[in-house]
Amino acid sequence: MIREKPKYNEKQLWQKYSMLTDEMKKFLEKNDIDQFLELQKQRDQFDKMIAEEPEKSYIKSEEGQILLKKLIFLNKAIHIMGQQWLNGTRMNHNVGHSYEALGQVMSGMRIDGKM
């Protein structure tokens, strides 16, 4: 059974895109990267639908411009948070890897060196 994509008007597409962006930020704040990536896939689908939408009057309206400014701000915040997460993950990986290079496996050990 093939399911048809629901048809949304331009305003609904932008509102759903905005809602998904809000949710992405929340899950990134919670460090739930799997859910963040799932929401990003969904948002990408709405991005494609927006690009295919022939009507562009909503985003040019005053209400649409306010929403667009909010989205630009959210996207910048998500980008910064994503970079911080990536840097922290890299640092954790590098620290663990540097201990392994010394012949010491630190997983399962306490700071005082006891098991």
Would you give an account of this structure?
Helices cover 73% and strands 0% of the residues. The protein is mainly α. It has one domain. Helix 1 runs antiparallel to helix 2 (33-52) and helix 1 runs parallel beside helix 4 (62-101). It is elongated, with a radius of gyration of 21 Å.
- Range of strand content: under 5%
Number of strands: 0
- N/C terminus separation: 56 Å
- Number of domains in the coordinates? 1
Key features of this structure:
elongated, 115 residues, 4 helices, mainly alpha
Helix and strand layout, with pairings?
Elements: H1 10-29, H2 33-52, H3 57-60, H4 62-101
Helix pairs in contact: 1-2, 1-4
The gist of it:
With 115 residues, this protein is mainly alpha-helical. Helices cover 73% and strands 0% of the residues. It has one domain.
